[in-house]
Amino acid sequence: MTNEREKTLQKIAEVLRSAASVLIFPHIRMDGDSLGSAVALARALRAAGKQAWILVAEDIPNNLHFMEGGLSTRDSKVIEQPDVCIAVDCSDAERIEDRKEAFARGKTTVVIDHHVTFDAFAEINLSDGQAAATGELVFELLKHMAAPIDRPIAEALYAAIVTDTGNFQYSNTSAKTHRITAELYASGIDHTAVVVEIYQNVRPQKILLLGAALNDIQMVADGKIALVQVTKEMFRQTGALISESEGIVEMLRSMRGVEVAAVLKEDNDKVRVGLRSKAAVDVAEIAALFGGGGHQGAAGFSSSDDIETTAVRLIEALKKSLLG
Amino acid sequence: MTNEREKTLQKIAEVLRSAASVLIFPHIRMDGDSLGSAVALARALRAAGKQAWILVAEDIPNNLHFMEGGLSTRDSKVIEQPDVCIAVDCSDAERIEDRKEAFARGKTTVVIDHHVTFDAFAEINLSDGQAAATGELVFELLKHMAAPIDRPIAEALYAAIVTDTGNFQYSNTSAKTHRITAELYASGIDHTAVVVEIYQNVRPQKILLLGAALNDIQMVADGKIALVQVTKEMFRQTGALISESEGIVEMLRSMRGVEVAAVLKEDNDKVRVGLRSKAAVDVAEIAALFGGGGHQGAAGFSSSDDIETTAVRLIEALKKSLLG
Lengths: 324, 324
Known about the structure:
Two copies of one chain form a homodimer. Chain A is α/β, with parallel strands linked by helices. The first copy, chain A, folds into two domains: about 1-200, inorganic pyrophosphatase (n-terminal core), CATH 3.90.1640.10; about 205-324, Roll (Diaminopimelate Epimerase, Chain A, domain 1), CATH 3.10.310. In chain A, about 40% of the residues lie in helices and about 20% in strands. At the A-B interface, helix 6, helix 7, helix 8 and helix 10 of A face helix 6, helix 7, helix 8 and helix 10 of B.
């Protein structure tokens, strides 16, 4: 595997080195890892005198805008026939969605990803489930390409790693993550500035929603279950978007004594449910009961029942699981 | 300086190597860095066959209890006359408060610290304002002592670094911080378990207080100032302690457009005020106007006015500063 991995990295490096034009594809609903990896690649390729663009089909999220640097475009014809099309942080072709055709126009297609489940959809596929972020793999790729890592490249890779590891807290973080980060510091990154852009740029509406949600916590089963129902009314009153309810469930889990946290959100005619656990409960199993899925510690599902009914059924299932 | 620093580290290593008994002093209101550094030292010294204890005068904070391992005592006579008394993470003697007498009983006294302002109060003093945590210095000290860094030692040092850098986000974090952390991983730390203990162990009352506070945000000066008044009534209703209002001010600052965040807390007959800024305002200057102090980005003061009056005066001062 390791040998295979090195060979594939080497091959991708060679393909990129001999290319004159490269089109880069971050995944839909792009995050820091996806965009950071794309930006680092685009900058390195341009610095080597190549034509390089990041093809997107949506707005750059506000807190990631600082690194975009005019490298992205929505024009799929920005390069008529790219020598290489490379998808970053994409576990399957659905992650590039409407840009699949544009991707296929590449004379060579490549994908670099770090998800555990991976559907090889390009000609050259690198997937390393051990990497904490695709940014780690791009760092290695740039080394293979002997591409200089200047400050903007290092800051994009730092943003990629920081966002995909939850500030080095998630279990995917490794010694390698920290070694790479130490090397990024050597390129003169202003890590505080990056942190301010990424984390201190929250829409006030999101903070208001957090306040409303935390004011309405249900504690069940002697405080082992913490649950919040985020209603349409809360979204309306705070002006927050459904995506801005992220983070509430982790806040609930952080409470002492809580084994499982659940956040139920009213989204049109569905109820979307996020689950997080410490150790006692496998929330992927719970989510599966409701037709959803995920990991032992983080899972979710959608329900067509109303939010109250969903809460009652969920609490019942969680209690059963807690009692063993 | 660097040479001086190395010599001092070497000297402390020698003093500890030749000691048979060592008493270790974390600072009052101990935090992860202070206790983590003390635990790592105590474990390494015991592993080398020495008598070693951590002398405390207060309860171990609940979220740090996991690493204590029976190494701490309140009995200042646990070692009659220690060969070495060593204070960790203490910038001056006031930080060991009532344990000063016990400290002075050491045949040799040592202090290791990383604060920028430092009052050398021992015979051998090591202060390195460049270090992100005293845990970094203890890591280096153990290397100088050729002490093996086993998993419990590595986890204590990891806890020290993580808490004093705010998960590697604060500006004190350096390439060295990440290099040391990578080495701690090599000792087999379970970083996820440490993170759960430290951060997912919050009293529910604190989360309830956060909810109440975020439900009552005042936005002033076109959203450049975010302010919350945490009243006695809120503390009563949520059951939270005054210390559990920490973190609210950072949450306010995280909002897009906010340049200064202020949290005012009613504490007996005082109002305690915490200030945080992004870049536009020097909050240390503002705090100084009210008899307080701090840094450019984080400062505070106490007021004898009531909370409403304090808010009005503060907002006035902040507006003046924002207008330049």
